[in-house]
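Notes, p. 3: input format for complexes.
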Amino acid sequence: MAEWLDIMRASELPLNTRKAIVVSGTPILILNYENTYYAIRNQCTHQDLPLSEGEVEGGIITCPFHGAQFCLKTGEVKAPPAFEDIETYPIRVHQDMLQIEA
Ligand code: FES
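Output follows (102 residues plus FE2/S2 (inorganic) cluster):
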């Protein structure tokens, strides 16, 4: 059964910053983008490389390796060479703790 896991204090992730973490062996990228928190799998579906250094614009992250793009909110693939969506995870602030559901 899924449960909310404490990741870090919300104050540790200022506006427009990000942090790569691993939860139960799964690489996850947490972002504070324009004052909204997102949690996505930190692994591009093209060649399984990390998205953590990718540029974000308009709610879309661009893979730094070959340019695939994904929606931060839904994980939907928006540009090739990837064709599969990435996983996203519910994220919330609870008593100043950032939590994801995993
Ligand atoms: S690994 Fe991301 S586009 Fe190739």
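The chain has a mean pLDDT of 96.
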